[in-house]
Every structure is written in C-alpha cells, then in structure tokens.
Amino acid sequence: MSLNLAKATDFCAALPGAVVDLKWGADLCYCIGGRMFAVFQTRDGRTPCEPPSFKADAHRFLELTDRPGIVPAPYLARAKWVRITLLDAMPQDELHALLARSHALIAEKLTRKLRRELGIEP
Question: How does the average pLDDT of the chain come out, rounded?
Fold first, then answer.
C-alpha cells in the first residue's frame, strides 16, 4: 500500500491547467493559475523524496490529521493544508482523489475568466 511518488507527480501534472515550478530551491510545487495545490519535497530539485502536502476541505482537515502519517502542513495548516509523512498513510487512489480535490479547491478561488483560459470551465 506504499505510495508511488512518481505516479502522484504525474497525476498532478495531468490535472487541467496544472504547471510545475521549483520553489525554495528543492520543492516541486504544482500550481494552477499561479497558486499552489500540491508540494513535493525533493533532494535534487527533480525527484520527489517525500509524500506531498496539499490543501484539504475544511471539514476533512481534522479527520485527515487524526490519521497516522498525516499532519498539519508547516506554515500552511491555517489554510487547511495537510502533509503526508508516511508512504503507507493511504492508498494511491485516495491520494489521487485528495490531490484532485486540492486542485479543485484552488481552482474555485480563481476568476471565472482565468478558469476558462485554463480549460477548467466552459
């Protein structure tokens, strides 16, 4: 049940309007409309070495952080971001669903015009 980080980064990259950016020297940040929806720590700036941090629904934040291997994300917990600390904290399909939801939560905050430009909204 261990997470495959390469599959997770590929999943994030395939979401509509997603772009990847290297921030803070070693973090792969997946963004939409210039706003982050997932962050993977790396050692070399390319290959993720830690499970991701991502935004969660407010009503799921406490539920997720009560689980072993999931903690409030440093610096971003007040915005309801969580950080996975163990590769076996959840199955791959659940991680993909949570990453897609994070993407959707961030996309909801973008202007309608920008969502249309990114191909998220007709």
Answer: 92
Which pTM was predicted?
Answer: 0.93
Tens digits of residue pLDDT in 40-52: 988 877 777 788 9
Domains contained in the chain, number: 1
Q: How far is CA 61 from CA 15, 22, 55, 122, in A?
A: 22, 26, 9, 30
Token pair for residue 70?
Answer: 């999931």
**Closest by Cα among 48, 16, 26, 53 to 38:** 53
* CATH code for the domain in which residue 101 is found: 3.90.1150.30
**H/E element, 90:** none
Q: How many CB atoms lie within 10 A of CB 68?
A: 9
Residue 30 binned pLDDT confidence (cut-offs 50, 70, 90)? very high
